[in-house]
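INTERNAL AUDIT FORM
Audit reference: QA-55
Scope: verify that the stored structure record matches its stored sequence.
Auditor: D.O.
Record contents follow.
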Amino acid sequence: MAYQRIEPFPQDAATLGSSELAALGTIWREKKKALQGTGVFQDFLTKLQREWAIETGIVERLYTWDRGITEVLIEQGIDAGLIAYRSGVRRDEADHIKQLIDDQLSVIEGLFSYIKGEQPLTEHFIRGLQAQFTSHQDFTEALSAGGERIKVALEKGTYKTLPNNPRRPDGEIHEYCPPEFTQEEMQSLIRWYRASEDKLPVEVEAAWLHHRFVQIHPFQDGNGRVARTLASLVFLKAGLFPLVIRDTDRQAYIGALEDADQGDLKPLIAIFARRQKESILRALGLEQQVQQDRYADQIIGSALKVLKDQQARARKRIGRVYDYADELVTIAETRTGELAESLGVQLRELTPPDQSSYGAYWNSARNDSPKKHYFYNQILEVAQKFHYFANLERYRAWIRLSIKTQEHFEFIVSIHGYGHQDTGIMAASAFTDRRVEKEEGGTEPVQVQPASVDLFQFNYAESPDDTKKRFRDWLEHTLAIALGEWKRLISA
C-alpha cells in the first residue's frame, strides 16, 4: 500500500464524538475536585499508570504474558523477581523487561507534569518521548536500499533515516512516510492539531492525532508507544485519564487503524471512547470510599445544613436519570411489542398439527410493579460477565420477548442502577435463555447468556434525545444477536 500524505481533521469531526463520554466527563469533572489529593485516588492513578506502562509494551510485543501477571504487577509494582517468577523467563530477561516497563512508566508519569505547564505540543517534545521509550532498546529492524530487512542501531530522539515499512502476512508492503518527507509531515501534524485543539470532542482529537502519527511512523522504532502517549496526552489535558489499550484490544485496535487508513476514523474513536468511559466509571466508584473516610470531618456544626442542601440539589439532578429510564422502558416495550405481534402471527401459521400453538408474546414490569424482582439471578450473572455491580435497590425494570415453538426461548432487557451508590449512572443489559420443564413442576431458565457486545450505560448529564438514540441503536443490535441465537437453537 503506497504512502498517502496525512490529511486534516475530517469535515464532520465535530459530530463523531460520543455523547455518553461527554456526559460522563461532565460528571467526573464535577466530582474530581473532591477526590484529588486523597490516598484512594492517588492509589488508583498509580495503578492506572502501571497498567498503561505494562500494556503499551505488550501491544508492541516487546514481551508477552497473560492478564493475571499484569494484574499482579499492577497491584504489587514493577519487580523483576515477580516477572521472572510469574512469567517463567530468565532473570536477565526479566531485568531487561523491567527496564523497558520503567522507561514506559516514566513517560506516563511525566505526562502529568507536562500538562500542568500548559505547554504546546512540539516536535521536540515528541522526539523526547521516543528517546525515553527506547532508552534501553539499542537495535531494531529496517529495510535496506535493496528492500532487505536488516538489523540496525536504533537512533533515539531523531527521525528515521531508513524506510521502516512492514511486510504484511500476505506479502504486501505497507508504506509509511518516506524518510525525506517525515519532518514536513510532522510539521503538518503539529500545525493541524494545534489549530483544532480543544475545539472538537476529546476522543476525536486523540484518535486523529494517534492515527496520523502512526501513518507517518516518523521514528525507526517506538512509534506505537509514542502514538498511544500522544492520545493519552490529549485525554489528560481534558482532565480525563491515560488511554490504556490492552492486549485484548489488539486485534480490534489494529483493525481500527486500518479502517482509519481508508478514511474511517469512527472505529478508532469508538475504542478510545470505550476505554476512557471505563476509566471514568472506575474513578467514580472511588467516591463512596473517599466520602466514608471524610465523613466524620465533614459533618460538623453549621456545615451539616450546607451539606444537606447540596445533597438535596444533587439528588434532584441525579434523579432525572430515573425519568430517562422510564422512557427507555417505553421504547423497549414498543419495539418488543411490535416484534411479538408480527412474529406471533407468522409462527401460529407454522404450528404443526400435533403441537401446541406456536407464538410470540411480550410482557414487562416497571419499577412500581410487584413483578419487578423477576430474573434476579440472570441479571446478576450477566453483570458479573460485564464486571460491574448491578444495583437493583432504587430502580429495576424489565421487558421480555417470549418465543414458543418446540423450544421456549426468551429475550430479556433489564434496566437498573450501575454501581453500589445512587450516582445517577444506570445500565441496561440484555440476555437470552431457554425455559425447560422441572420435574417438580413449573419451568426454569437454562443457557443464560448476554445478548449484547457492550453494556448500555446512561446518566443524568447526557441529553434525553442522545440517550434515546443510543438506546434504540443498542436495542436493535441486541435483538439481532438474540434472534440469531433463537435461530441457532431451533436449527440444532
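Auditor finding: record pair retrieved intact. DSSP finds 16 helices and eight strands in the chain.
Action required: none
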